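User: quick one, fold this
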Amino acid sequence: MILDRIDNAERYYPLHPGFKQAFEYVKTTNFENLEPGTYYIDGKRLYVKIVHRQGKGIEKTRLEEHKDYIDIQCTITGVDLIGWQNIKDCTTEGQGYNVEKDVEFFPEKPEVWVKTLPGTFALFFPEDMHAPEGTEEEFFKVVIKVALNW
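Assistant:
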């Protein structure tokens, strides 16, 4: 997991061929003008989900794992609270991997919680299980999905 400011995104471009395009999209898009939903930037290789809603709270979050995509979660307004745990430290069985949605949920709670403030991002690789929407407040964020196999 990486937690940083969007202003520092350039230092992560060498980690994946899709990161430059993903972060440049975040830096140049006025998300306030877009409705919540899914927007394709480069087909299924790179797309964004716009999320504007009330958080679930820590007790109602679930750890999730993705096998085919890297998540870049960028907070626009409000604060999200996201749980993190390395997949190697997971002690419970998953609830079944959904290939179509590229997600598997786990019942245990994360080891670490981080706040993502406006102007920041949290980047989750497949080994980074995460539990988003832990805040109980309203928030607005974008989740960029970057395919591992570029």
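User: anything notable?
Assistant: The first strand starts at residue 2 and ends at 5.
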